[in-house]
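User: Structure please.
Assistant: Input sequence and predicted structure:
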Amino acid sequence: MQITTEKLEENQLLLNVEVEEELVEKSLDQAYRRLIQKTNIPGFRRGKAPRSMVERLFGRTALMEDALEHLVPELYQKAIDEQGIQPLAQPKLEIVQVDPVIFKAVIPLPPVVELADYRQISAILKEATVSEEEVQAFLEEIRRDSAPWEPAERAAKMGDLLTLDIKAEEEGKTVLEREAVPYVMAETSKEPAPELAEHLRGLEKGETRDFRVTYSADYKDEVWAGKRIDFHVQVGVIKEKNLPTLDDEFAKGIGDGFENLEALRQHLRSRLEEQARRQAQQQLEEEVLQAVVAGARLDFPPVLAHQEVDILLNDLTRRFEAQGISLSQYLKFTNKSEEEIRDDLLPRAKERVRRRLVLNAVAEAEGIAVASEEVDTEIEKAIQDAVARKDELGAALNTPGGRASIDNIIRTRKTVARLVDYATAKDTEDEIPVVAEGASQGEGEST
């Protein structure tokens, strides 16, 4: 067996193997013996027909295919053992020729991660501030949410609740048809379809309007992205909010024991401040992680990104199904193939792989581990927080796969916290360096 190897881009190895004629002949004989044990050949008892007869009946090509189906995987394993190759995943074996037999394999190798000096990264936790305007806006939101809807005998305006009979078509084909759909007129409203509010302004009960909406190719809602939709809408009931007066009685009616409006304001300020602190912490973690990833040099095979695409596509499919849309319907609606969707997801998948590899490398370098008791605590918390089917959830989380997943979540959390500790421990006001001088994100990594 003659073996040659060649290093390829994206941390892959090309393995070429030329097989000796004696090994091929031996494998052909084994294929012949397998065949005669399960085939009735006229004039011969089962298992007794000579090989020449079998080759005339089935052809040497069929015998060779059976022989190589067993021989090539065996020789591949022997070749990588001899060469000391440790594949990350099973490659696709390709037979190049049969006389002599030569096969090849593009082998994905384990990823290579070279970390920069991540302990030198610095960052500042931004101050979490809340303005009086933000508190007032929150209070107005509660005021609106608590107000009842009442019929309005006037033209529709922003903030109203309408009932709509709606039909949407793309190039004459109906893509949406519903009756008596509740619709709050707001720029952020997405159901039953986005960007309807402006077209409904000024309509009165019973009036209709036809209009066209052209959604950009990168529109945030994938269902509508890149489409030109013709809408026919009829307005039913128009309702408005009867807003209560913001006073102490309003605060008392909210519940939770607020004695007056000022107590409610202070409570809302505390909630907004806590939210601002969480957002500041998340932003800090994101900045630190971006800097650590940007400073690292990575080389990993495409199989890792493609596996991540599978995960993202499954997540996307579940989101569509939650909206009553199948993946095939979405592909038809967007006029895209599954392969095109995979291509769209690939950049995001690569970034997720980069982050995971870097975080794993940092965790290993820092000796960050997770105790079994920590996993137990996390599972118990998840079960307690669940609103239903607690027993099923507990059983699922306590499987080896479930525990491994939780272990990874905790380990990642600890690793990010360690990196943030390093970044914020320095007495500096400098902005966080996103990319080290002389390096760029993507250096040494697959694309």
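The radius of gyration is 32 Å.
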